[in-house]
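Hello again, I could really use a second opinion on something today. For a while now I've been wondering how a particular protein folds. Please have a think about how the structure follows from the sequence. Here's the protein in full, and shout if anything looks odd to you:

***
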Amino acid sequence: MTCGGCSGAVSRALAKVEGMRDGCDVVKRELTMCAGITYDVSLEKQEVKVKVTGDVSYDEVLGKIKKTGKEVVSGKVVQA
């Protein structure tokens, strides 16, 4: 991600993950939480951190990010 438009595209894609509801606040490049999904898009660090406490799969989140056309360099699942 090299610009605010890129990070905004990722934020918008994550907002469309199954389980997100209408009326959820999506704040560009800042921590957002709704329906058990928390994510932080950092343009400065060139990374996205996603925390899911519901029934959303890793593959679903990864697929939404890839649909933006952004390269996913690495990803991992961490069990709490």
